[in-house]
Every structure is written in structure tokens, then in C-alpha cells.
Predict the 3D structure of the following.
Amino acid sequence: MAINFPGTPALNDTFTEGNTTWKYDGTSWNVITSVVTTPVAGTNLFTRFSADSGFTTANTPTDNLTIAGGDNTTTSIVGDTLTINSTGGGGDAFGTITADEGSTTAASINDTLNIIGGTNISTSIATDTDNVEINMSAFSINFLSDVDTTSSPPVTGNVLKWDGAKWAPGSDATSGGGGTDADTLDGFDSSYFLNYNNLNNKPAILTLASLSVGVENTPSGNGAITYDDGTGVFKFTPPTAAGIGALTAEVNDLTAAVTWANVPNANITESSVTQHQAALSITESQISDFGTYLTGSSSIDALADVDTTTAAPSTDDVLQWNGSAWIPSASAGGGDANQNAFSNIAVAGQTTVAADTTTDTVNFVGASGVTITTNEGTDTITFTGPGASISNFSQLTDADEANLTVDKIYLPAITMLDVTNNGSTAYRFDQYGTSDNPGLYAIAGTTIAFNLSTMGSSHPFLIQDFSATNYNDGLVHVATDGTVSTGASAQGNSEGVLYWKIPIGAGGTYRYQCSLHAGMVGNITVKSFATL
């Protein structure tokens, strides 16, 4: 019967169907025992044997298992070796071979199927091999069902044309790109028609050599530039004096355009202003109002609203308005050598704190359990929280060091078993009472935890499959100090908590085993939710 094994199994995966469990060894699935009796310490025995169509178990300690041959199969035992031989015949074979135009059925188990080539097909069997080669022979284009070159053999220069029923040789139409109506170029015509030099009515092409500049014309009016498209000559006609005079005069009133603050004092003199008076539209009375500035000024104190004489300026001073004049000042805002400062202090989700004055102060207030210290010498502010000196989980004030250690809460588990020992003979588990090496049950796809800190330190704890091979998949060990190890490194511990994240595909029987005492061993039966 067909077994629906998983498509992509991993090494040591197990699969259970009905009353039989298989294990994957990396190459094939092998039947393992699913009904278990407590084994004798140090002795591995098969108590159940399964076949494709059923299974059997031993009825007595001395029961015998007989392996008998079936159809075309014999068995023999020599010494400790069991040999199963096939006598041939009766193997899987195709009884009927079907082709496109019929089928044939084998008349006997020794019947022969002949593979024979047909038209343009040949067959052969390579020497000393089981390979049948089917080769296609070379054939002409006339072999194609929709081509006929026999009724009208082709001559040099012919092309294949569709005559409504088949492709047949025909003359190439050299005019129009092979068609009877090719008077327009659509980008897919022959290269002959795409060659400009083959056109009979091509226009004259203008080149740079055809262009020239001629002798200028006699001055006339406002002047002009002309081009003769017949000769390709450019000519310039200069303007006359009258034409120039007819141009609209430019208004040269620059009073609104000139920013006197950007004109160097050395360039503003009485003679220069008088010289450009007409262009600047400045009257004589306006010129006289410039006073001493027409000859230049050497000090800002010459400004009527600036006083740098009463209080001489110092380095980094700024001009500050005192109500009647601008005077030097060292305390005015914005004149500090370092003007970078934060006006606002913003915290996400909180109201922004804004400075009200230039001397406003920000106060830092520590919340419950938070200490704030300042160091004027290093310009630092230090915030110290309640957990700054905590380095271990047990130092938390709300942690029960005896019962709530980090190893016990590392992973969520469906159950946690406190593991103890009965001397060196058996393991015990708190939820199973005082039973020695009890059978445990777990569910695939869940996590089960073993608290190893509740037993003696000389009983290293292992998880194994039923063949006594360490099973490392899904193992996570957390020591009492929080150290985490996984896989094979999680095996053989006597303290902390061992978590087993049971793979969803696991099933069947596994074992717990002390690595130092063979008698401390028991079974763990893993089931899926679907079989509960």
C-alpha cells in the first residue's frame, strides 16, 4: 500500500500512520518500533516487526519470527546472515505500449518490442549499452507539408510565394519591395528603397558650402540682414544716421535704481555727481544737500544718528539704539561671539518649552527613582535611573530569586517539569508523582520545559530518539545565569532549564536518558493534535 511520506524530510524526522512509525535516515524511511515495553538496562530489542500489509509482535520471550519467501523470492540463512534472493520474472513492466496510431500488448513476459524508424527517421542501439538512439535524417524543404517545389521546380532568383494553398517558387518582384503595391515606405521595405541615392526625384541638399556672406549693402533706414534662398548668400544693410536718430531715446533716470549704500565713498565726489547730474536727474539743490559726503567720509561717526565719540567702541561691540542714537555696546543681544543657542526645547508628545527672555533658564527635574547630577567643570548633566546598578535578573525588587529566575521564563512552555532523581536508578518528575522513569507525553508543535536545577548535579540529562541517538532538534538550554545554548550544546546539563521546541513533524517515541547511568531512562511519546 502507498504511504504518503513528507515530501522534504530532514535527518531523523519521524512519520506515523496507523500503528506504524517510520524514521528518515537521510536516504530512506525505516520502520521503528511504536509499541514499547520497558527495556532491560543496556539491552536494545525489537519487540514488533511491521511489513507493508501488517505487523506482528512477540508473544513470549522465546517467540520466533519466520521470514518466508514469496513469489519469485527465496530466503536462506548462513550463520548469522539472512539472504533474500529474487528468482526473476514478475517484475514491474509496461504490458501495453501505445502510439499515436495504435497500441500493442506484450504476449508474454519475454515478448520483445521493436523500435523501427519511419520516413526520415532511423534507430540504432549503441554498442555495449542499453541506449536506443532515434535520429532524424536530413530532408529538403519540400518535405514540409505546406511547401511544393516539385510541381514547379525553382530557378535562380526565385522566392517562395503563397499561392493560396501552399508555398511555391515564384519570381521576385524587384519593384516595390516584393509586393504589387509598395509605393509607400513603412520601415520594413528592402534596403534598395531605403537608400536615398536610388531615388529619381530627390531634392537638392543644402550644405554648409552653399552658404556665404556677401558684400554689405548701401546703408538704408534702420539697417537689416537679408538672405537669398536662391544663392544662399547673407547680406548686411547698415542703418543711416537718420535711422539711428529715429530710434526711441532711452530714459536715463537712475535715481530709483542706484543704491547709494553700495557705492564706495571714494567714487562719490562733487565733480563726479555734477558730471552725471543730467543722467541721474539730480538738481543742483539736491547736490548741495550731500554736504561733506560728496568728498567722501572716513568714519561711521559722521552719520547724524551714530555716536561713537562719547563711548569709544571695544572689540566685539555692536551698535545699540539708546533712544536717540546708535552707540557702541557689549551687552546687546546678537552681538555675542557665540550666537548659537536653542530657543525651544521639544520632546515628542509633550508641550514645547520656549525661552521667554535672553536669560531664561531650563530646569531639569528628576522623576521618581531618577537622579540628576551636574558637573560645572565638565559642563555635563547626568541622569541616573533606578536600573543603572542592576546587572542580574535577581536584583530586581519584584523578582522572586528562588522561584522566578531568568532560565525559568526564557521561553513560554506548555508545561515545566521539575526533574528529580531516585539515587542513580531513575528519574522522577513532579507531575508524575513518585513513579520511577515514567512515560512522558508531549504534543508536536509545542514547547515542553525540564527544570534540571531540582535534582542532583551528577545526572546529565539527554533527549534521544528511540535508537538511543541524541536528538538535538529544537533544544534550547538556559543556565541559571542566563547563558543560552542550542542544539547539541544544550544536551547533558544538570542545572538550569532545558526547553524542547518539538518540531511540528515529530511523532512517535523518544527517550530521556542520563548520560552517566544507563538505568535512568524513560520514553517520551510525541503525538500531533490531529491524533489526540
Summary: Residues 34-41, 176-182 have pLDDT under 50 and may be disordered.
